[in-house]
């Protein structure tokens, strides 16, 4: 299978990402997709900046090491790339209708070198298996030639939004 060209380009940005997944500010943590082979693999990037909300409370006395990007945000950004790959052929940017993507599990995650403002995260996601509406993904995040995170397994599934709504309360007899 070959990479998908979009509008003559082999990359696409935030507008196209938002047409596929429901993530929005302030939690959309992808800037660009640089490779996409539907049903097989995706590579997306996210630039880390010193203006990230996670650094907002650092005072004037903060040193460079205090600006290490949180591991939880690296995981979230990679997982968004995974959801993008998993839902590429069935986009649903509105979680109030249709299907909703749910993270089922993430296993065997390991971290390498820390990430700092100025670094460009390159998320590499590979589709391992599809079982019905559930996909199993794996991959890593690199900054240049450094691996900063590995994901052994990420499970994402799709469920109808109607199945996730709370049950209507039973009428009270009176």
Task: Please outline what is shown here.
With about 170 residues, the chain is of the alpha+beta class.
- Count of distinct strands: 6
What's the N-to-C terminus distance?
64 Å
Quickly count the domains. Answer: 1
Percentage beta strand: 35-45%
Outline, from the CA principal axes? globular
Structure classification: alpha+beta
CATH class bucket: Alpha Beta
Instruction: Give me the CATH fold name.
Output: Thiol Ester Dehydrase, Chain A
Q: Give the mean pLDDT.
A: 89
The largest pleated sheet is described as: 6 strands, antiparallel
Question: Helicity range of the residues?
Answer: 10-25%
| Helix count from the secondary structure assignment | 3
Q: Could you list the spans in which at least 5 consecutive residues all have pLDDT below 50?
A: none
Please give the order of strands in the largest beta sheet. Answer: 1-2-4-5-6-3
What is the CATH architecture descriptor? Roll
H-E order: HEEHEEEEH
Task: Name the CATH homologous superfamily.
Answer: Hotdog Thioesterase
**What's the gyration radius in Å?**
18 Å
